[in-house]
Batch of 3 targets.
Target 1
Amino acid sequence: MGEPVRLLRDKELKEVVSFDAGLMLGKAREYPKEVEIRGRLSRDLIEEISKVKKEPDWMRRLRLRALEAFEKLPIPKWLEGVESLDLDEIASYVKPKAETAESWDELPEWIKDAYARLGLPEAEARVLSGLTAVYDSENLITKVKEELKAKNVVFISMDEAVKKYPDLVKEYFGKVFPMMDHKFAALHYALWSGGAFVYVPKGVKIANPVEAFFVIGSELEGQFEHTLLVADEHSFIHFIEGCAAPVLPKFSFHDGMVEVYAKRRSEVHFTTIQNWSGSIVNFNNKRAIADEEANVEWVEGSIGSRVTFTYPSTVLRGRGASTKNISIGVANGPTKIKDVGSKAIHVAPNTRSLIISKSISSNGGIAAYRGLVKVLSGATNSVSHVQCDSLILDEKSRAYTLPRNEVEEPTAEVTHEATVGRLGEDQLFYLASRGITEGEAKAMIVNGFIRDVLRDLPLETVSILTKVIELEFSQLGSVG
């Protein structure tokens, strides 16, 4: 199997690799901050965050319980090296000096400039039903079109939902992904800020996607947004999550959370285009519960960041529930690690899961698939298929496949297949002879490699993914 996948040590974390220089957002620059809370992770720090956010007492108590859990829980064994992160060094909460806005014109110029570079105003106007944008630790703008209002869809910031819909939030918050799941889930619940709350009423189908976009604006900063999506019976929604950051001299840490509750016969598509700059250590917690005949589809495009750990998961709790998970991980450059995968937990009979992983490693990068398929006793006639394809673009790069199957039901059908391919010098030579640069050639080959999974994705997802991959290999940076 070779060397184990590991997270980078302190010295490596604080280096900046050269091909981040063209990042679309440019280099990090100073900007006005209204509040910045940093220091040793403690009860006083948690109390201060809750006070600044003017939260109800039940949320303050939840944060303190999470802090206690974080202090008790061990470092997960499958995250070797995370202990090298000095959490006391990062800012746990940062609020930019900008009022929450309902239109782009109301934002300060420096924020408008950043969002314009990312193309958010255009996307919101053209193809989205709703959009919320988080800068550092706070939502700065949330826009909802009349389609959502007319159908009584709730689409607001997570912080606003805590105050406006406390009973609804209490019913679901932390129930899909419990804080005791692992140490960094507990850390998230202790420090969470920003994110989106979505409730789709029974029978409502939203024609166009909604999006949440997250930007980390400075070094040595933690971002801990929380997204909670509840799709009631017979409903449909496509949620897009985008991420970006400027080039940072030192690392920042992202520890986000997504909880999805898909009720009977509902359908949820959740797409993430994660294209952080190379200074970000990215840890994502994503899980869904699917009730009877519900369907949850995850698409995870992990292109940027220094290190990414993310495993979107679905608990198939209801009879006939199904899930599909497509992950695309690009580890482009020395010290770059993409450890991505999926989990499918079959609890009920006649459940279905399909997991497809496409990993690409280049310029000394490490790409790994890490997944779990678990079929509990009584989940009769369940079917799961896992397909892992790895593409290695040079001799310095590596790829790993680390599957795990736990099948307790004799009637279940669980299959797994994996392939590894390597880019040959003759292919690059042929493309070079046609006037195509090496970066353009690699982007073409990578987009061809993932073409079969792109075929079934929404047009807007395909467009963003292919553009981001082109930027990554042309060394022009990222748009998120």
Target 2
Amino acid sequence: MKILDKKILVLAPHTDDLEFGCGGTVSKLIEEGNIVFCAAFSACRQSVRKEFPEDILITEIKAASSILGIDNQNLILFDYNVRTFNYHRQEILDDILKLKAEIDPDIVFIPALSDLHQDHVTIAQEGFRAFKFSSLLSYELPWNNLSFNTASFMKLDEKHIQKKIDAVKEYKSQAHRPYANEEFIRSLARTRGVQINAHYAECFEVIRWIL
């Protein structure tokens, strides 16, 4: 089943979470004519390595999202301090509700509700609160997911995985992460592909799916 002519919103706690969690899927959705918006809530200025400019992740997300096909005007950046989201729940919810009113998305992607990272789970919970009457999918970040219900899959081609890899490569400030490399990205996509008799895939938890 193709998803066509939809407005899709991805809520990303940090500037690289969309690319890691659903970069291939976003590439395919845009290719099929959907409009994708990305809202990232922190550029993690407080945790950027000293050899990089403090705002490097802002530069990197603009380059990475462009590779995936996201229009620059559909990239929304907030400036919450990393690892403090749980202290700003109401402000974050207010920001998400503004996005809901302005974009009125058909489908929303959020982190897993069981994500172990304090910022990720805050965005997941407040995203669910704001979009409880919408179609909601959680994207996979295995290093933060103690468990993950592989309930929904997006079949991907080589070109979608390559775009995801190319987008992740734009995050030079994150290259030290053990999951920020082509080998890991391809191996996870192959694993998810095997589960549905495809070559590559990304998988998602279904929170709400409204037909």
Target 3
Amino acid sequence: MQNESQKRSPGSIRILCEEAPNYGVTAEQCLEGTGLVTFDLYQNEATVTLGQEVSAIANFIKYAPGRPGMGIEIGRRYRPEVFGIWGYAILSSPTVRAGLKTAMDFANLSFLIARLRLNELQDPPVLNLDISGLPKSVEGFVLERHLTVISNFTSQFLPKFSLSKVTFETTLDDPKIAEAIKSMLGVNVKLGCDKNAIVLSNKLLDLPLPQHNPATMESCLRQCRSLLNLEDSDVPEMTAQVREATLLEMNNDPTIVSIASKLGTSERTLRRRLAQEGTSFRKIHTEAKLAIGHELLSTAGLDVSTVAWRTGYSEPSSFVRAFTKKYGYSPGSLKTSSRYGEKS
């Protein structure tokens, strides 16, 4: 699952507490041991951790009548608009593939608990829902909720698509959960598998999204990047400063000497500080180049060779290897989506 200490909006716990009375559970029971009170969930600047949300879900399940489908029922409240800019960025993407990658790139801005991974090297491709580290008692509820969120998005950007064409492979082994997912969402379920994953197809991933708008998408992505930088409190101070300075200087081919000078320190001190934070200028520089390459492929409609050259790689093959290692899929897989992202 995502990082347990990850900060997020209290909106997801608020939805749970508002729905809980329908199951004979009070908001106070949901919040037992979380350090939260109901008042906290309605404060504009308030944040909670993923660990607190998981605890609230575990409390709800403890007091609620134990039956499959509750995650689906409550998950119907998680419409795309509930997710704010993250949801709008997905809806304005050019294709299903691009939408999924936006969802994964900015997952920290969402209410996701599972860590999403799109594996296009597998045939057919699958969207993995990694819930490792999650208490067994909440696995069914969390997976039901995630499937419902995906269903909610699908109904908006692919209203004619039937989820009966999709299969969910899961480590769960309860036939009643499979029956609830099938009857309430229309998704086929295969129990007792070695992973939790939605089996997709390249045809589905390539489908254009009707709400795609290049200008809207770029605006949403800028806001997502800005929010992520503001909320990414886990990044050490010097690493964050070097990353920001490097991105701003990419057109000038930044070096550790030039970045050290820009930050008012010496090359030796900068190397030492970054080493203490478990990274290096080379690593930060590479990640910055790949991030820019990803954006160019996604939105500018450039081919892989051109993007490799523009990001400082002398050989496209070196760019492809580094990109695939970083993102888990090849840069070529973004070519289709970038077609739809070209400006007129």
